[in-house]
């Protein structure tokens, strides 16, 4: 199973919104919801590219990334949390003996830090980030790589995603995609998803895990 990180495993989408407000507030600007929605689920160059374009910023995406990381660092240890249902989900995957890993648009440095603080990193079999593939989400590269690391066909891989762009990536890889929108991503269009779940506790997710376990 390949799992997204931001907004699916961790509450970092909540934190991203606060960081975005701080980042633009320092420049006398408002973090507009329509711009935030464009950025969700995208790798840093493309996400910050939207921010630069729509807000007329002078900085490069790399400069904005470094400033974002600095702001994040002040709140991660105190504010980071797992999303509801994560612990039960991971335990169930482990009990079924299924491989699992994270496929995220975040940088490897940030993902490793956040997953480590949440005590999730050591439970994963692999980590694929936007830095590890040529094209980030919504392209299929990240999920094709995840399938390769698990030595399975993408068509046999379960993908859990919270965003429209992440769902598109999984669908483009021909994976079995379960979309689990949150408060930040419910506006999305999850075309091609095998199912749209309200939460990670949706019983249909566990039914698919059971089916995957039997096919092993």
Structure description:
The protein has helices at about 10-25, 35-40, 45-55, 60-80, 85-95, 110-115, 140-150, 165-170, 205-215, and strands spanning about 1-5, 100-105, 125-130, 160, 175-180, 195. The protein is an alpha/beta fold and about 220 residues long. It is built from 9 helices and 6 strands, in the order E-H-H-H-H-H-E-H-E-H-E-H-E-E-H. Helix 6 links the parallel strand 2 (about 100-105) and strand 3. It is about 50% helix and about 10% strand. The protein is globular, with a radius of gyration of 17 Å. Helix 1 crosses helix 4 (about 60-80). The chain has a 6-stranded parallel β-sheet with strand order 3-2-1-4-5-6, sandwiched between helices. It folds into 2 domains: about 1-10 and about 80-215, Rossmann fold (3-Layer(aba) Sandwich), CATH 3.40.50.1000; about 10-80, Putative phosphatase, domain 2 (DNA polymerase, domain 1, Orthogonal Bundle).
Number of domains: 2
What gap, in angstroms, lies between the N and C termini?
12 Å
CATH superfamily of the largest domain: HAD superfamily/HAD-like
**CATH first level of the largest domain:** Alpha Beta
Please give the order of strands in the largest beta sheet. 3-2-1-4-5-6
In percent, how much strand structure appears in the residues? 5-15%
Percent range of helical residues: 40-55%
């Amino acid at each position: 199973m390949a799992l997204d990180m931001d907004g699916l495993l961790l509450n970092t989408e909540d934190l991203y919104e606060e960081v975005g407000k701080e980042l633009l507030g320092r420049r006398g600007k408002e973090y507009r919801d329509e711009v935030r929605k464009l950025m969700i689920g995208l790798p840093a160059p493309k996400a910050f590219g939207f921010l630069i374009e729509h807000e007329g910023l002078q900085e490069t995406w790399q400069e904005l990334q470094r400033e974002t990381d600095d702001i994040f660092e002040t709140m991660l240890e105190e504010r980071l949390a797992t999303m509801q249902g994560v612990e039960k989900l991971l335990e169930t995957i482990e009990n079924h003996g299924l491989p699992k890993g994270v496929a995220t648009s975040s940088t490897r440095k940030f993902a490793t830090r956040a997953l480590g603080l949440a005590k999730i990193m050591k439970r994963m079999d692999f980590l694929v980030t936007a830095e590890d593939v040529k094209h980030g989400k919504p392209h299929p590269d990240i999920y094709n790589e995840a399938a390769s690391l698990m030595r399975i066909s993408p068509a046999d891989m379960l993908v859990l995603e919270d965003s429209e762009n992440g769902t598109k990536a999984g669908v483009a890889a021909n994976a079995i995609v379960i979309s689990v929108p949150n408060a930040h991503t419910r506006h999305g269009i999850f075309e091609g998803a095998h199912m749209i779940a309200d939460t990670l506790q949706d019983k249909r997710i566990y039914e698919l895990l059971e089916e995957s376990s039997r096919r092993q």
